[in-house]
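Q: I'm writing up a methods section and want to include an example of the input and output format. Could you take the sequence below and give the corresponding predicted structure tokens, formatted cleanly so I can copy it straight into the document?
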Amino acid sequence: MGEEKKRPSAPGRFRTRYTGSILLLCGAAVLLTAAVNLFLSQLPSGWTHFDTTEIGLYSLSDFTGQVLSSLEEDIDIYLVAQYGSEDSIVQELLSRYAGSSGRVQVRQVDPALEPDILARFAPSIEANSVIVAGKDRFRILSPNELYVDDASGSQFAGEQEVTGAISFVASGKSPKLYQLSGHGEGALPSYIMQAIAQENIQMEELRLSTEKAVPDDADILLLYAPERDLLEEETRLLLEYLRSGGRMILIGGSMSQPSPNLDALGASYGINQEEGIIIERNSNYYLEQYPSYVLTGIAGHAITQPLLDKGYFILSPMSFGLAPAEEVRESVVSSALLYTTQSSLSVSGAGLEGGPVDAFAQGPFTVGLAVEEEGLEGTARLVWFTSPYLLLEEVNELSSGANCDLFLNTLSWMYDFDQGISIRAKNLMMDYLVIRPGTGMALGIVLTALIPIAVLATGVVVLKKRRER
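A: Here is the clean output for your methods example:
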């Protein structure tokens, strides 16, 4: 009889089946993972990529969402960069735009591989630039516009620029700002000029003394730190402009000499200038050793609310107060924006030379004010900040950029771009830790005296207990 073939033992058959099951499960897991990855890759970037950066570097604001949802034409966004050399921050931000609207298409264009596409826009385009193109218009955003260096450090202005460009190419209109001249006005700091351009606002100089009227395309007028009074005819033209629904920003005022015409302009909207420079006596509300550099309180308003939400302060040097006029039209609505404490004083005449306290006017004072008036031809808006040094670069640096944001928010409110107020460049550097003098003194006592004494006392007690053992 031939030998019978041995049959596999039961444990052997179990191992074979077990191995087969494992291989089957592994294969199914691989297929399932591939399917899930394929599915997730089709979802909007915002659903699958989470912005864990402290400053929300890649997150889109509510206003950007509103701009995208209101688009009535397709927008193409091109990231100009060689493959492998693209800016990862910009690339991730643009993917959020594509994921937030079906009308926005984003693609990367390698200049070496697809020069014909770029030739439609410009002969030469810098690497890592962004092109935002609509049906009839386009804008090219260079890396220097996406990343901005100022006194407060390096900032990423990606959302601000891209959303502004989308709004520009989709609407076909940019607000027009005229800066008044002829009264010894100060030159706007370069960082402010750059910030205005980033807001897609066109800017021109206007010498009103040679004009018969404010230009029809003037969306906003700016009178910045004048040293001399307005002319009577200029005042008349400005009042006509405001009564027809015009918008005007006034920073500073003619403090070195009487200004009856500027006073008349303010009084027409219920605002009177108060004499004297404001000095703050509460050490928590002025820059150390400079009591005329006042840290103001901020009142709630569309202009100031984002600053309140972030806990910022405004530094207002050499300010004067604004007071309500005794008689004003009922249709005029005024809102305080910035104010000083009750311990502040308005110093003039002998007070500036250290005169008696009873010669001082007592605070609080309003140093920033917004006025609105509904009219048949539109809503007039007038905003007045009394510090002529409000926008100086070093002052803005000391406020961690809040003074600049205040000005840009005011511009946005002026041309009914209220929702755009919160879109600002995101600081890639740490903000300055600003400690008010009173708080600094208290911290100094705690850190240099109380804590060392407490540690020493604890050591003495512990040593004594050990010796007693």
